[in-house]
Amino acid sequence: MPFKMLIVDDEPIICRGLQQTIPWDEYMVEVVDLAYDGAEAIQKIQEHGDIDLVLTDVRMPNVDGLRLAAFLAENYSDIRMIIISGYDDFKYAQQAIQLGVKDYLLKPVEVDELLQVITKITSTLQEERKAAQQIYQMNLQNAIFHQVLDLPDTAPNHSGLFADVRIYPFVTMLKEYKNKTKDLSEEELQNVAVDWENQVEKLLNSQGFSCVSVFTSKNVLLTCVTNHLSDFTPRNLDFQELNCVVNDTDITIGQLNEVYLRLYEDTRYIPFSEDGVVVSPVSESLANKSKANDWLMDRAEQYIKTYYASPIKAHEVADVINISPNYFSSLFKQKTGKSFNEYINTLRVDTAKQLLEETPFNVNEIAEKVGYREYKYFVDVFKKFTGYTPTKYRNVRANNIN
Fold first, then answer.
1. Which of 69, 144, 370, 393 is the most exposed place for a label (fewest CB within 10 A)?
2. Considering only CA atoms, which of 26, 51, 1 is closest in space to residue 208?
3. In this structure, are residues 47 and 82 in contact, taking their beta carbons and an 8 Å threshold?
4. Where does the HTH araC/xylS-type domain start and stop, copy by copy (predicted)?
């Protein structure tokens, strides 16, 4: 972003010459206006409100360059001032220095000399702007963290100062998180988190957005867009391996705690969205779709618990509740956290454990009662779930009871 400069001189030809003959854009400077005396300069500084540099003559009617410098020192101390004077008078230079003016050039000014001064000033301004942005971003991050994390009372808290700052929040979740991370070390999990956060930030930055992100749990990353909010369109973001729940509008940081809880709650609708993106609050149609699917899964579980001891198959249950086998498998995994076969085997092994503990049936009989037609397969499944063969399990439980 270029630095904005006002040129002030009581000779219009000099003002226009300085404005038009120097390629200011090559030096990250934009001449935003001209003024022909100090009084007009003050008026235009107040109108613009974001002037970075003032290049001014000393001798001017109404308000001269030194009185302009005094006004800036008192009211706009962040504005850098360069004085150009046709008077080689130490008193002028001395007064200017006392007013905080660091650059005092004599007419006629060499363009190269002026540009050296401009380059030095813009470099300093750039460093100051960068430092100020870093401090602002840290304090903004702190305010967001205090809204969604349980931080100790001793932690610095800038929430009050940023309560009215507007942000655009959304949460992302890694698709198939459990399967992708179940065998990873802590270091590898940390690398996944870093790559994930970088992916979100890089995509936003590529479209001109800044953001603050924080993991609120291992598989939930809250991201708050902090600039150009009116241009932010979540549907245009392609997170590929991530599911996303976005708020339907920007909010203030003071509202974040309440809105974040709703975003987190609405992650349950992700399986029912077409593209893995849910807009919160969810539409009535999506909410109704979710309720309908919950009802279907309740029917499926009831049917399975009734007929688990028979050679039941996933497509059979899908037929009963009148949906496709693939859609059934997806919904069932989302609802129970298990595949159909895992769920059936868990149900059968739990029943088998009860029968081994409470009845005199032999292992072959128990295998048939819980739905296994092959004795060896039953023993393998039982051992996988419990760590024991059925006979060993019965003996261990009997010894424990005795």
1. 393
2. 1
3. no
4. 298-396
Across the strands, what pairs with 223? 170, 213
In the chain, what's the furthest Cα-to-Cα distance?
Answer: 115
Give the single-character DSSP code of 107. Answer: S
Tell me if residue 205 falls in helix, strand or coil. Answer: helix
Q: Helices 340-358 and 390-401 meet at what angle, rounded to 10?
A: 50
Q: What is the mean pLDDT of the chain?
A: 87
* Calpha distance 237→243 (Å, rounded): 11
* Domains of the chain listed by start with CATH number: 3-109 (3.40.50.2300), 159-282 (3.30.70.270), 289-401 (1.10.10.60)
Kindly report the pTM of this predicted structure: 0.58
DSSP structure string for 212-272: EEEEEETTEEEEEE-S-GGG--GGG---SSEEEEEESS-EEGGGHHHHHHHHHHGGGGGGG
End-to-end C-alpha distance for the chain, whole angstroms: 80
**DSSP annotation of 99:** T
For residue 383, how many other CB atoms are within 10 A of its CB? Answer: 15
φ/ψ of 166, rounded to 5, equals: -90, 145
Q: Is 47 helix (H, G, I), strand (E, B) or coil?
A: helix
Cβ-based neighbours of 118, under 8 Å, separated by 6 or more: 27, 29, 53, 82
Q: What is the Cα–Cα distance from 9 to 66, expressed in whole angstroms?
A: 13
How far out from the chain centre does Cα 286 lie? Answer: 24
Question: Is pLDDT at 242 greater than 80 in this prediction?
Answer: yes
Angle value at C-alpha 137, between 133 and 142, nearest 5 degrees: 150
Q: Are 34 and 47 in contact (CB under 8 A)?
A: no
Render pLDDT for 294-326 as a digit per residue (tens, 0 to 9). 777 888 898 999 999 998 898 888 888 767 787
The CA-atom distances, in angstroms, between 216 and each of 145, 219, 223 are 9, 8, 10
Chain-centroid distance, C-alpha 274:
22
